[in-house]
Amino acid sequence: MKQLWKRLASDSLAFAVVTIGNKFVAFFLFPIFIAYLSLNEYADWGVTNTVTLVISYLFLLGMDTALAFYYHDVKTDEERKSYLTAAVLTSGLVGIAFVIAFFFVNGWVSSLVYEGGEKNKWILMIALLSTVFSVLNQLLLGYLRLERRKWPFMIFGILQLAGSAILSVYFVVGLKEGLSGIFIGQIIGQCLVLLGLVILLWNHFRFPIQIPYAKHLLKYGVPLIPTLLTFWVLNATSRLFVYHMISPTSAAIFDAASRVASYIVLLTASFQLAWRPFSMSIKDRSDAPQLFSRLAKGVLIVGSFVVLLFSMIAEPFIQLIAGGKPAYHSAYPYMWALSFSTILNVLHLIIGVGLFFQKKTVMISRIFSMVAVIYLIGSLVFIPVFGLWAVCGMNVLTYLLINIFLYYKSQKIYPVPFRFPAMLLFILMFIALMSGVTYLQMHHTPGLTLYYLFAILAWFIIIFASGLVSVKTLFTLKLKLPRKTNQSDSI
Questions:
Q1: Euclidean distance between CA atoms 17 and 162, whole angstroms
Q2: Which of 109, 131, 429, 487 is at a distance of 20 to 30 A from 185, taking alpha carbons?
Q3: Is the pTM of this model over 0.70?
């Protein structure tokens, strides 16, 4: 098992380079765009990303997950290459067809999405073109990840975002193109990366496309679309609700909170990138369930501690990067809930691992669809009353429900000793702890540093009080440590 830990850590570390680079670029763009875009344009940027995110799922059709499954399920390289070809061509053709169809309804849709109406008529069209290239890059980068070609993955992964970001800044700052400049830069950057990836992987394509391979991918991936749409509901519709139910200004503040809260992706994304191929490759090992159990607890413990620590610097951090735009300074209280939701999102991949192994993607989709309905109803009811706090609360609640439902379904077909009741108790106690910290921050309580030290101590206490880690386990680990033998020991 030690070798498995080393392998997962090695893969995660390699993929973390891309993630860190991407987040650095995102933090670099944030103060630039809020300086050169009006508050409404910044809100429109967030809304555009929301719409294109859901459409990207329709382009992707779950092909990335299906490709990861069949890559490890088949025995020969020729079959893997045929699956890659089928995935890329299918997604590409669907994306092109969608863009052509959208051309005829572009103006009508834009008038519904934006308060500016005709002013942003071509923004969505440009953004959709960028999305098609982004989806194809995602599939090709995913294939490099499955091949464990770390250096090409890192180079092209960084180029994908860094190149697009530099070009976007040029169009926004240099050419004064405003919101449209962001997506024009992305189109050019994504095209260049796609060209490089196609050249690199040209020998891995097999023409013509073989229909049986496409059918296998669609059969596995399409049932995941409701799951992906649920992710969109949980991660993106909140911006639309806030934009139209409260105001574009509140949507801009929430978008700022979400972007800064995505710092947690530095911790989680590298693990997520490594997780799929890693878990699929060890699914038949007898000790895999024990490894999954330890990973689940590790993600929860490490993730919650990072969330706690960042919450202590959230306010000065947002003030620093928002600069002379004080309207964004009020985003800090919401960050911990949004980042903790990301931790719970990562956790579900481990909790429901058995359903992925057994191809029960339909069951996963049903769970996500049910939870999405709960989220939508809760958001519509509570956002007018509690504003942005309703969005944060519904995010945490729904991801928690997803983990609960997946646990009970997955355990029936692939038992893993998670100690799930202890995990749930820890989560509830952590939410209570963070609520207390936020209350003190918002009321500008004197001596916050001392309270922060108490919060860290309380975090350590609830690890043991919840039963997530037992004191007995620590003593057992201590007893298992090898002792240095001496002459008296051998007598």
A1: 13
A2: 109
A3: no
